[in-house]
Amino acid sequence: MENVFEKYTNEFLTFKDYKNNGLNGIALYPAMMIDEMQKCILEEILKIYEKKENLVLLDPFHGAGTTLLIAKQLGVNSIGFDINPLANLITKAKLYDYDRDELMSDKNKLFDMLDSNIRFHLHSFDKIDKWFRLDIIEKLSKIRFCIMKIENKFNRLIFWTIFSNVVRKFSNSRSSTFKLHMKEKQKIDLMTDNVIFEYKKELEDALTKLSYDACSVSTQLLCGDSLKLLDSIKNESIDIICTSPPYGDNSTTVTYGQFSSLALRWIPREDLDGYAASVDYNYSSIDKLSLGGSKRKPSNNLVYLNEYLELISKSKQQKIINFTEDYIDVFEKLSSKIKKGGYIIFTVGNRKVDNQLFPFVKINDELATMYGFSKVTELKRSILRKRIAKKVSSVDSKAVESMSEEYILIYKKEGENQNA
Fold first, then answer.
1. Where is the DNA methylase N-4/N-6 domain (predicted)?
2. 95 FRET partner, CA 20 to 30 A, in 25, 304, 341, 372?
């Protein structure tokens, strides 16, 4: 099967002319996958199966829902997990099949309220005046209040999703990084207060891209710890696992939690899932709850990991151990959920720690062999567009370059596939 992927060269997979201006691009979220790339890879895998009607795809780290959206378009049932409530909300908004007339009616109600002199309460939370100007707080509070007046919870999904974009855009945090870093005071002072105009404009655009056709494909989304949620899935019940797992602990790799924290402070808990509503979120809690967020003791014999730990300082070893131990637990559980002959498709990267490349690709290869998978292929692509700086940290007074390449790893579980 490896030969079918020969056409997927590095140049092809960069998608240099790609523009994320469809349904997948309606919401801001860190490190989003290219939907066209995922579609190409999944289409090749699906050619193996005689029937795809009853296939089930799992994405245990669904992020902004790119893979699940493609699965739906290709007629594949899917299950998605993510620990981040904002990711869960955004993905639901993309995947839901709306009633066009009801949604347009609610949009008109919302706009009428926004254009009126409706009385509303100023929203408040810890350090709100640090991250937002007072006039911006007033406008965002009005939008928040008016969305809450819309009775249809499913229609509110898309209203909150676009609201999260506007919260990010008009915050005092820099847009050039996923972390919470203050803009210069001059830039904060010069921001134009056109919050409601921008919100209405973005929402109108998003409504042209949503799905309004009833779909027979099943999609199940859950918000929470993937390791725990995997217990709800029967062993050997998944045909394809397709995901981009974290490349390292969130706090020092991609800070999904920090990115999401401001929007989550504005969105009411009752419009988030049960797990999300029960967690006491602060500006770093999601990242601490994610893979590598708590201290672990080393308990594995991975050759590439142990060789790597010898290359980095003692002070940096612990966070690598924390992440890898958590990741091994997830990999082991994933391996038990996939059917014999099923496929894993991982998009991963080798980040730098202590200016040394963490061999995440090789570690995945080692785990795949350990848990009964054979490697189908490995594809490499250059990352042309990044919203993080090219230099992300400093070691010994020298700048460290951020990740510029990704790898698509495809594994097959040993055994005969009954549907192929």
1. 41-85
2. 341
pLDDT of 196-252, one tens digit each?
999 999 999 999 999 888 888 999 999 999 999 999 999 999 999 999 998 876 666
Quote the radius of gyration of the chain (alpha carbons, Å).
22
Based on the number of CB atoms within 10 Å of its own CB, is 129 exposed (0-12), middle (13-18) or buried (19 or more)? exposed
User: What is the SS3 assignment for 31-62?
Assistant: CCCCHHHHHHHHHHHHCCCCCCCCCEEEECCC
C-alpha separations of 139 from 86, 132, 146, 219 in Å: 21, 11, 11, 35
How do 338-348 and 238-243 pair as beta strands?
A: parallel
Element (H, E) at 395: strand 391-395
Angle formed at CA 59 by CA 92 and CA 238, multiple of 5 degrees: 120
Give residues with Cβ within 8 angstroms of 319, minimum separation 6.
Answer: 248, 249, 251, 252, 292, 353
Cβ atoms of 290 and 250 within 8 Å: the answer is yes
What is the enclosing helix (H) or strand (E) of 344? strand 338-348
Question: Do 238 and 157 have their domain in common?
Answer: no
Residues 244, 142 within the same domain: no
Q: What angle do CA 339, 345, 351 make, to 5 degrees?
A: 135
Task: Measure the CA–CA gap between 146 and 109, rounded to whole angstroms.
Answer: 9
- 3-state SS, residue 338: strand
Is there a domain that residue 267 lies in? Answer: no
Sheet holding 56-59, edge to edge: 219-223, 77-82, 56-59, 238-243, 338-348, 405-413, 373-382
pTM (two decimals): 0.92
Q: What is the number of structural domains in the chain?
A: 2
Q: Of 183, 207, 231, which residue constitutes the final position of a domain?
A: 207
Residues 198 and 225 in one domain: no
* CATH code at position 71: 3.40.50.150
261 inside domain: no
Q: Mark whether 237 and 352 lie in a shared domain.
A: yes
Contact yes or no for 326/333 (Cβ under 8 A)? no
Domain end among 207, 239, 269 = 207
Q: Are residues 61 and 122 in the same domain?
A: no
- My answer on whether 39 and 83 are in the same domain is yes
Does a structural domain hold residue 61? yes
Write out the residue range of the structural domain in which residue 154 sits.
100-207
Three-class secondary structure of residue 295 per DSSP:
coil
Q: Tokens at residue 20, please? A: 């994320």
Q: What is the pLDDT of residues 291-348, one digit of tens each?
A: 878 888 888 889 999 999 999 999 899 999 999 999 999 999 999 999 999 999 999 9
